[in-house]
Design goal:
By secondary structure, this protein is mostly helical. Helices cover 51% and strands 7% of the residues. It is built from seven helices and two strands. Helix 1 crosses helix 2 and helix 2 packs across helix 3. It comes from Parnassius apollo (Apollo butterfly).
């Protein structure tokens, strides 16, 4: 049976016991396996010697088995969900671009907070957070730069050159 927490030692020496073993943390999958072995043995054997038997079967120290069992199935941290900026459609991306360009047309400095407030007030509605907007701006190629000692949103020089090249080709 494959046990992911075991590490194969191809170069074993005779004084292996004298060298103190380095502590390794068990992955969450390994902890799940230890917990499921414990639960199966608990159903079959009752309460006596289950932790010791689990320790022997899984090659995990008794103290670690006790810690995993006491934590129960809540030992895993919550998994963060993926940020939804990848699901933003092209219409919303274009709406964000137009909002930034409108700031420049009105001679205003587009900061993240101003852009976000403007998008929230618009009719199209922007149901994402400021952090998601920041990630979207990075994805669209905008970057922050200094203008009059204030940080503002600007397009990267690479995008400016590509746009200029495209317009020249069309002309």
């Amino acid at each position: 049976m494959f046990r992911p927490w075991e590490i194969s030692n191809s170069a074993s020496t005779s004084d292996e016991n004298s060298v103190q073993r380095r502590k390794r943390h068990l992955s969450s999958d390994s902890q799940d396996i230890v917990l499921s072995v414990y639960n199966k043995l608990l159903k079959r054997m009752g309460d006596k010697g289950v932790i010791k038997e689990t320790s022997e079967l899984t090659n995990v120290p008794i103290r670690t088995v006790c810690r995993i069992v006491s934590a129960g199935s809540n030992h895993l941290p919550r998994k963060r969900t993926k940020i939804s900026y990848k699901r933003i459609d092209n219409f919303t991306e274009e709406h964000v671009r137009r909002t930034i360009y409108n700031f420049y047309l009105n001679n205003e400095i587009p900061t993240l907070r101003k852009i976000y407030q403007s998008l929230m007030r618009s009719e199209a509605g922007f149901e994402y957070s400021e952090t998601t907007l920041w990630r979207l701006l990075k994805k669209l190629g905008f970057k922050y730069g200094k203008s009059d000692e204030r940080r503002t949103v600007m397009e990267s020089p690479r995008l400016l050159l590509l746009r200029e090249k495209f317009i020249n080709e069309i002309r």
